[in-house]
Amino acid sequence: MDPLVFLVLCLSCLLLLSLWKQNSGKGNLPPGPTPLPVIGNILQLDLKNISKSLSNLSKVYGPVFTVYFGMKPTVVLHGYEAVKEALIDLGEDFSGRGSFAVAEKVNKGFGIVFSNGKRWKEMRRFSLMTLRNFGMGKRSIEDRVQEEARCLVEELRKTNASPCDPTFILGCAPCNVICSIIFQNRFDYKDQNFLNLLECFNENVRILSSAWIQVCNTFPVFLDYFPGSHNKLFKNVDFLRTYVMKKARKHQASLDINNPRDFIDCFLIKMEQEKHNPQLEFTFENLATTVTDLFGAGTETTSTTLRYALLLLLKHPEVTAKVQEEIDRVVGRHRSPCMQDKSRMPYTDAMVHEVQRYIDLIPTNLPHSVTRDVKFRNYLIPKGTTVLASLTSVLHSDKEFPNPEVFDPGHFLDESGNFKKNDFFMAFSAGKRICVGEGLARMELFLFLTAILQNFTLKSVVNPKDIDTTAVANGFASVPPPYELCFMPV
């Protein structure tokens, strides 16, 4: 057969197969733009800002619609009502982890963030219980965060009020807190191993938020056969996992079953207790992935939020002045801020919430999937279908937040200036897959930011009016633009 004819036949068969799969898989899925064979709706999406594309499509197709990433249908939930109905009211049905090809290749279904079913439930339950046993949500962890806040302030003093990029300094603090829980020790801020770990986390978030990774998630074949930044991401994950495994082996050699020192010890003890279980989930592979998940999630999300917060405070000196006035009045200068102060600092509390709302850190959430065939608003979503919940549509709802594109702590204050809770605040997601470390992250953001503003005046190296706070990447996460500032001791 002529090679050209053979190639045309193969391509025709591929197109027909694609059309058949797309049509046969539809069932009674919500409406959406008509997908093209093989590539789906990829040409109708801005891969640098998927969230914005989904918002535009919702204006045409409503709060629940279907888009095709390649040949896979994905149901999109847009707006508070649809997101709440799925993730909270029908939480169990929407508790699966959806398709995310890059993570699937890296994690192979292990760990806590990208696992499913029984394994996910066991890893999440164990992790939550162990983190609580080591103080998460208690006074003991607050002491650790306060101590780290003091170390952070001392490190910022060493900049001598000179212009500096705060990226790595702000990464050190939350990373040390999670390190103290997982590894029982913290690092010096100049430790090269520590800085290497932080660089891996920082680089991975940038790579995951790139348009290229959106392409790879849509067409997983690229991960195996094409060059690109995904290979650097894989290399970074291998480095992190190797580091964790070295720590685990050292822990194993000095393990005292009756006196666990940290998260790794607890996991090793559980491995020993469960070793005869034929459905064993507590393995070294799950240990390495779970610890890397907690390590990454506990470091990069908080440090990125802190970095974005300082940029917004530079841009809005009037907000900074109000926060510092409240700190002076409630805390003063002669003791460290504590969580008890928060109830008497409504403006500062509102500022922290507004930072998280405004930056919209994980715009489309991590992908969910349905764990069974689900009837949802007169549609039938087949088991295993990926679901994207647009957190942007909730956090930037113009029905709930007047001028949602404006940074304004008043979004979380009532007429009397008291802090007001808001159900639309889903910065940590919602439902069964809500962030495991939410309590710790909230504590860190409040205590680190108040400690910084208690001790320093933030000075921009450019006119505040010229500061651009637009994210430089909006894929997996919203990444703030690079900047410098001066920490002027008060």
From TrEMBL:
Its EC number is 1.14.14.1. This is unspecific monooxygenase. One of its GO terms (biological process) is xenobiotic metabolic process. Keywords: Endoplasmic reticulum, Heme, Iron, Membrane, Metal-binding, Microsome, Monooxygenase, Oxidoreductase, Signal. GO terms for molecular function: heme binding; iron ion binding; oxidoreductase activity, acting on paired donors, with incorporation or reduction of molecular oxygen, reduced flavin or flavoprotein as one donor, and incorporation of one atom of oxygen. InterPro entries: Cyt_P450, Cyt_P450_CS, Cyt_P450_E_grp-I, Cyt_P450_sf, Cytochrome_P450_fam2. GO terms for cellular component: endoplasmic reticulum membrane. It comes from the Eukaryota. Its cofactor is heme. The lineage of its organism: Eukaryota, Metazoa, Chordata, Craniata, Vertebrata. Belongs to the cytochrome P450 family. Gene3D superfamilies: Cytochrome P450. It is found in: Endoplasmic reticulum membrane; Microsome membrane. Heme binds at C435. Residues 1-25 form the signal peptide. Its main location: endoplasmic reticulum. The keyword Iron-sulfur does not apply. Pfam families: p450.
